[in-house]
Amino acid sequence: MRPEVFAGLIDGGWAGLDFADFRPGVTIHRLWRDPGSGAEWALLKYRAGASVPRHRHPGPETILVLEGAQSDEHGTYETGAMVCNAPGSVHSVRSEGGCVVLIHWALPVEILEEPRATT
Q: Is CATH 1.20.272.10 what the domain over 20-109 is classified as, yes or no?
């Protein structure tokens, strides 16, 4: 079986890819997914001010910030930062100025809090 190769992602090669809606203000381009386990590699693109609500990682999560900065309760991670979240970790994610990240989930995440609707 041949590997799937995604050239130039670190150098902005993601810019020409098609992204689909994922969460409000966040789009996704799925690179690879194991339908049996739910493990996945994807690119997430956050608009300025976008966020993902509080969620739990049943398995490990790895994030590489390709452009911009992403923050959670533990800090802000700028271009080039790699973040490894352990199984069982819980956080919410936001990007004040927008960002693009390469992300790997070993197992699908569990959303703990949906954002409240504003009226």
A: no
Distance between CA 77 and CA 53 in Å, rounded? 17
pTM flag (> 0.70) = yes
Amino acid at 111: I
The three-state secondary structure class of 13 is: helix
Phi and psi at residue 81, to the nearest 5°: -75, 140
| pLDDT tens by residue, 21-73 | 999 999 999 999 999 998 999 999 999 999 999 999 999 999 999 999 999 99
Q: Are 111 and 53 in contact (CB under 8 A)?
A: yes
Domain ranges of the chain: 20-109
Determine the distance from the C-alpha atom of residue 99 to the mean position of all C-alpha atoms in its chain, rounded to a whole number.
10
Helix (H, G, I), strand (E, B) or coil at 61: strand
Pairing label, strands 50-56, 40-46 = unpaired
What's residue 117's pLDDT?
Answer: 57
CB of 77 closer than 8 Å to CB of 56: no
